[in-house]
Specification:
about 325 residues; mainly alpha
Length: about 325
């Protein structure tokens, strides 16, 4: 039986690796552009933006929230933070899809060696690898999307949307004596511990990794189950002889995304809260345990699934498009 070993010399060339990266990057960028407005609203719901909490928890809320954003800021408001999204998603998707292909070939060099556990492991490893290299870009994207215009005169100056360079500067200087919170916190803010302050003062780049640990915890089941479902369903539907169709790839991709989203969503909610924690508590590193307790106090178990409905509205087209475009790009660029 023919081996699909990653050690194939033809797959180690700069040209082949570049084509692999390009295929994944284009797939991710196209998919994210399709769902960018839904993604912005979902972030506002997950991070408990006070201006949009009245819409959270119901299916129609996404449409009312989208309408409010459009009225306030027009189409540009729906795509606020999308430039940072594209800057982040291209390398993220490029690394993720390339890593999956290579982990898959290493773990399952032949058809007979394919197992669901290895499919899950290859997906999890690819997801964590891509997150490790691109997480700071994700944090910047979330901060850009979290900002909203407010009619309040007292908060207007602090919540006006910032540029990409301003957001980077704000994150880097959070917790310094000259920094100020740019979002109101509904609960009293605990005093920062000296240890936390020293860590941020000594390693300010750590501020770009708020929520990283819980992101990894969530990425393992999300990427693992998404790629597992994708690979398993394609193997069952098409076997070894039938050629996958474009419509088939869209459908299988959508199902894979739903499975991954459902399993990993509570981790995503906690991650979003930790990522915007620097806005409300800039001197403190919001740990995942503290964040979980905060979500539970505010809304109970339902708090871990706030925005899930819009998550489905987003993930179905996004994963369908990303997997389908990835397959199409592999065909165009002649990637096995």
């Amino acid at each position: 039986m023919k081996s699909r070993s990653v050690d194939d010399p033809g797959k180690q060339t700069i040209s082949y690796i570049s084509r692999e990266l390009l295929a994944g990057g284009v797939a991710g960028s196209v998919a994210k552009t399709v769902v960018a407005p839904f993604d912005r609203v979902k972030i506002l719901f997950q991070a408990s933006n006070p201006q949009f909490q009245k819409y959270a928890g119901r299916w129609t809320g996404v449409f009312y929230a989208t309408h409010d954003i459009y009225v306030q800021s027009g189409v540009r408001g729906l795509y606020q933070g999308h430039s940072a999204t594209l800057i982040r998603i291209f390398p993220y998707a490029a690394i993720k899809f390339m890593a999956y292909s290579r982990f898959r070939r290493a773990l399952m060099p032949t058809k007979s060696s394919e197992t669901n556990f290895k499919r899950f492991l290859a997906g999890s490893l690819s997801g964590t690898t891509s997150v490790l290299f691109t997480y700071p870009l994700e944090l910047i994207r979330v901060r850009l999307a979290y900002q909203t215009r407010t009619p309040s005169a007292t908060a207007r100056s602090s919540l006006q949307p910032h540029s990409l360079s301003q957001i980077i500067s704000l994150i880097y200087h959070e917790g310094s004596p000259s920094s100020k919170s740019i979002a109101a916190e509904p609960h009293p803010t605990p005093v920062a511990s000296p240890k936390q302050s020293r860590i941020f003062a000594s390693f300010p780049l750590l501020k770009f990794y708020r929520g990283f640990s819980v992101t990894i915890y969530g990425m393992i089941p999300y990427a693992g189950t998404s790629f597992l479902a994708w690979d398993f369903l394609r193997a069952k539907i098409y076997g070894t002889t039938a050629k996958p169709t474009r419509i088939g790839n869209l459908v299988v991709g959508a199902i894979s995304g739903v499975v991954g989203q459902t399993i990993s969503y509570p981790f995503e909610v906690v991650r979003r809260r930790m990522q915007v924690g620097g806005l409300t508590r800039p001197d403190r590193w919001m740990g995942w345990r503290e964040t979980v307790k905060s979500v539970w106090r505010q809304a109970g178990w339902r708090g871990f699934f706030v925005g899930l409905s819009i998550g489905y509205l987003k993930v179905i087209p996004m994963t369908a498009v990303s997997f389908a475009v990835w397959e199409e790009m592999k065909r165009i660029l002649i990637i096995e």
